[in-house]
Amino acid sequence: MPLIRGLAVSTIGRSFAGFLVIVGLLVLYVGMGRCATGSALEAPGFEHWLGTDRLGRDVGQRTSEAVGYTTVISLAVLGSSALLGAFFAGLSALYYERVTDRGIVLVAESIRAFPTLLLALLLGAMGVRPSFVLILYFWIPVWRLLRAVLVAQLRRPYALAARLQGMSGPRVVLGEVLPNVLPGVVPYFAGILAEIISAQCALEFLGFGPPLDQPSLGGMVLEAFSLGLAAPWTWLPSLVAIIAGVLGLASVGRMFRERRSWAMLA
Amino acid sequence: MAAELLFGLWVIFTLVFLAAEAASVDPARALLGPAASEDAARALRHELGLDRPALERYGRSLVRTLRGDFGVSYDFRLPVRDLVRDLLPSTLGRAAVGLIFGGAVGLAGALVAARAGFVKFRWVLTALQAAPSFCLLVLGLWAGARGLGITPLQQRWAFEALAIIIIAAYPAGAAGSFALERASLVTPYSPHVDFLFLLGAPRHAIVSVLWTEALPGSCLIIINSLGVAVTGASLAELIFGLEGFGRYFFRACARGDLPIVSIGTVILAVVVLTLQRVGDVAIRAIDPRVSGVHNR
């Protein structure tokens, strides 16, 4: 167990260090003044490392801002989905296999079975903010994960002892069980975050992104697509950032799942 | 199963109706155009029953949908039923071909990797599963145009094939990951694997047994990937300009063409949920040990 814990910590440490290096490079890039406006569609060079777009804006700075925007929105969606999922997971665990739980299962499976993007587009066309749609969709994997864990934990002796001492069901879940299970569950959020970023960028590409003055990763690809994908330096950095971010988070999520499997069997 | 399917469809239909109610689009004004007078718009609203209470409109809308009357597109001025009938089979066909092709490739790859002991192949499968399809489609379009000098208008078959390959990535990754995880002999052994080793069974035979056992679960994952495949097919139609319902659906979403958006959503939900429920029952009939869609 100590070896596995150490491996996990060192991997987390390396991942976090890598993330800090990337953020530092981005800050350095913007701080060095490589973001002044230049002539339109300049190829990458010393003045503008990633070139300029059709309005002469520095592509590197816009990509940095877009990465920041997409990251903030995706983390906000993840946080909201986690809260909503934890709430419904608590309800499901307390009323497991009864009407409440079955109702939540049916609603969740109905929503989850439907393509994310098409549901988001439907509600986006009706004026609902795409972020709210993503929260509506992504609370379900959190709920599913926490539900299984909470149901198992509520049958453990410490939880039963808390009930016998007169604590109410919700208090046992919130005060005793949830703090125990959260550290083990949080690493799985990396995989969910990857899905959120993928869906978020796809919605931006389909025109359901922020206003034009706010760069977004999907929006930059959309802009280039509408102009025939000319000048690849204007959109390739965004595309690479999306693919690298999603694949990186999915790999981290998988790695944590595998380490947890080994840890449970150790 | 039928009751759960009907409940799921009812949830989707109600969600669509509520979203349409919340939309700022006035159907009568959208049909008549901005130059029409308010009296004409009011008369059309009365004719369409749009001035009735919400609950009555919900009931009428449900009955009309069940009868197959899907209304008229604001944008194309055509019955939505005709658009659906002519275009939806193309989208579903691409999704189905991609699903089957991806599932086959993923399962075959998992078997080969498990037999060879090449467990790192799971990272390739993870990448396939996670890769955003719209990014791959845009890259494919650019590579075709700049690298090979071909466009979807000139070489439609090449981009149809590329679309199928990209649609196949997710089911290949998902089904392959599941099969490799269960057939690989690197993960801790289950008791019956220990028993097979005790009997002196060769490694490749044990892997084949495990892979065969994982097949029903993998097939269930492939069926549950139908929604993702439909999304991928729709994106391919939009990006490559291929003919299909997905392209019109995206355009309808951007332009607020509620009849296409509403009915398209409901019909896609009907198809996806029905196929998933039928597949769930079929797989569990083959192997009762497989946990169903609900994953309890």
Q: If you average the pLDDT of chain A, what whole number results?
A: 81
Instruction: Say how many strands of chain B there are.
Output: 0
State the major sheet of chain A.
Answer: none
Characterize the main sheet of chain B: none
Give the helix/strand layout.
The complex is a heterodimer of chains A (266) and B (296).
Chain A: H1 2-31, H2 59-94, H3 99-113, H4 116-125, H5 130-153, H6 157-164, H7 169-185, H8 189-205, H9 217-226, H10 236-265
Chain B: H1 2-22, H2 27-32, H3 38-48, H4 54-67, H5 80-116, H6 121-130, H7 133-147, H8 156-183, H9 191-198, H10 203-224, H11 226-240, H12 245-255, H13 258-286
Structure at a glance:
Chain A is an all-alpha fold.
What does this structure look like?
The complex is a heterodimer of chains A (266) and B (296). Chain A has 266 residues and is mostly helical. Helices cover 74% and strands 0% of the residues of chain A. Chain A has helices spanning 2-31, 59-94, 99-113, 116-125, 130-153, 157-164, 169-185, 189-205, 217-226, 236-265. Chain B is elongated and about 85 Å long. Chain B has 296 residues and is mainly alpha-helical. Chain B has 13 helices and no strands. Classes of the chains: A mainly alpha (266), B mainly alpha (296). Chains A and B meet through helix 3, helix 4, helix 8, helix 9 and helix 10 of A and helix 1, helix 6, helix 7, helix 11 and helix 12 of B.
What distinguishing features does this structure have?
heterodimer, A: 266 residues, mainly alpha, 10 helices, 74% helix, elongated, B: 296 residues, 13 helices, 77% helix, disordered C terminus
